[in-house]
Amino acid sequence: MHSFGAMSFGLPGFASCTPGGIMRLLDEYGVELAGRRAVVIGRSAILGKPVGMLLLARDVTVTYCHFRTADLSAIVREADIVVAAVGRPRLIRGQDIKPGAVVIDAGYNPGNIVDVDVDVDVDVDFDTARTRARLITPVPVGVGPMTIAVLLAQTVEAAEQRLGSRGR
Q: Domain Tetrahydrofolate dehydrogenase/cyclohydrolase NAD(P)-binding spans what residues (predicted)?
């Protein structure tokens, strides 16, 4: 709770790992954020809300939606950046994506994941969305590894801070 509050107010602290990983992906691929419109589909405290706050801190106009949002497709079609994190299989289809948009699929339906080598039910219909998106994350090898990388980096940073505060 402290980290979310700190992040929301721009104070020092650690970002939630998956949202932090998403931001690193966007940075690594040179996605211009300031002035863009993002739609975050999902409102969880560990993914949807934090990623929206991180985007907002980078001067992105953020709209939060969920699976019951009226006319979700029309809202998504206006977005330069789509972050799907709701856990509803193929809720977002290719025709919902604005041509040239960046699509981050961080959603999954855990009841259908059996083996990482097979297709999983994710929020974005990858095959149809990739024809319109400029950049799109595949599942399961897109956002997941970035989550782990951020977790490891923040663990090291926390350890260094703790050791530093003891005077080494």
A: 16-162
Q: Which alpha helices (H) appear in the chain, and where do they start and end?
A: 2-8, 17-28, 48-57, 72-76, 126-129, 143-165
Q: For residues 51 and 54, what is the distance between their CA atoms, to the nearest angstrom?
A: 5
5 located within any domain: no
Cβ(27)–Cβ(146) under 8 Å? no
pLDDT digits (tens, 9 = 90+) for 83-95: 999 988 889 999 9
**CB proximity list for 5: less than 8 A, separation 6 or greater:** 11
Domain that holds residue 109: 15-165
pTM of the shown model = 0.86
Other CB atoms within 10 A of residue 57 CB: 16
